Amino acid sequence: MPITKVTSAVLADNSVDSDNYVDGSIDTAHIADLNVTTNKIANDAVTHDKLEARFTAKQDITATSGTINLDSSSYGIFKLTSALTGATTLNIESIKKGQVIDILVTGSQTITISDDFTTSAINQAGSGVYDGASSNHIQVVCVDDNDSDAILIYSVATYTSDTDPS
Questions:
Q1: Tell me, which fold does domain 53-159 have in CATH?
Q2: Which residues of 49-77 are buried (b: 16+ CB within 10 A; e: fewer)?
Q3: Beta bridge partners of 158
Q4: Distances (CA, A) of 39 to 26, 47, 121
Q5: pLDDT tens-digit series, residues 70-120
Q6: At 1, is the pLDDT very low, low, confident or very high (cuts 50, 70, 90)?
Q7: In 36-127, which ranges are continuous DSSP H helix?
């Protein structure tokens, strides 16, 4: 007599593999952690909401002098909300290769850029210089995040409200 009904009590442990599932029958609760591979994600399917905060979040900073730590693992934009009042070191922490951060700052003070790598080269691109009388945009890209030989490149430009780029 043929079996007409199979219950879980009849099946041996680990006896059913994925070839026996009905297509589309696996739901989120039954996908093991860390088991969705890149080729299972459709092109252009990752939205802004799925990106790490390091690429999407802005930190408003009220400090106006001294060493200001910029945590690049949590933010991609750092806005110093008041003009600098004293010498300032912008210390970039936890930046990753290929990551770009933006720093918005003003105030007629001396600025130094540092990082949390053991050994690094911090280089300037272009000829823009910090202008304490204006609003400044400092952009930093991490070219290499090897702790013993990291490379950061920054550029500086002033900015103002203007809808006509010509």
A1: Jelly Rolls (2.60.120)
A2: eeeeebeeeeeebeebeeebbbbbeebbe
A3: 136
A4: 17, 16, 36
A5: 999 999 999 999 999 999 999 999 999 999 999 999 999 999 999 999 999
A6: low
A7: none
